[in-house]
Specification:
4 helices, alpha+beta, disordered N terminus, Translation Initiation Factor IF3, 125 residues, single chain, 4-stranded mixed sheet, elongated
Length: 125
């Protein structure tokens, strides 16, 4: 079952720093790398998911926090009513939103990750 959220249905405009995570569309590290880019551009990122994708969002947040790239600012949980296409009725889905901010070491760690290891040269064959 695909899990997607639609920001327009929530009544708020699509935020530039929000990532709506699905556990069927992209691999985990696609979202980790996208979150890093959003933190770099906006100083924070909001990760959002419904249902079974919640574990993926928590994993992404923990990877970023454990690597020293982000700090947890806010965690919100709720339930949202969604129309089940198969059964034709409204079902309640769990929802999570995690806001992560840029850590003090973010720029240092990102720059260190982009530096080639010492001793490696371009013309090695």
């Amino acid at each position: 079952m695909a899990v997607e959220t639609v920001a327009a249905a929530e009544g708020d405009a699509q935020k530039k720093n929000r990532i709506q995570v699905s556990n069927t569309k992209k691999p985990l590290f696609f979202y980790v790398n996208l979150a890093k880019r959003y933190i770099q551009q906006h100083n924070e990122v909001e990760l959002s998911a419904l249902g079974m994708a919640i574990t993926t969002v928590v994993t992404i947040a923990e990877i970023l926090k454990n690597n020293g790239l982000a700090i947890e600012k806010k965690v919100m949980t709720s339930t949202v009513g969604m129309k089940d296409e198969n059964k034709g009725r409204v079902v309640q889905k769990a929802k999570i939103e995690i806001v992560l901010g840029k850590s003090e070491k973010f720029d240092l760690l990102m720059n260190a990750a982009n530096v080639p290891p010492e001793g490696a040269s371009k013309d090695e064959e």
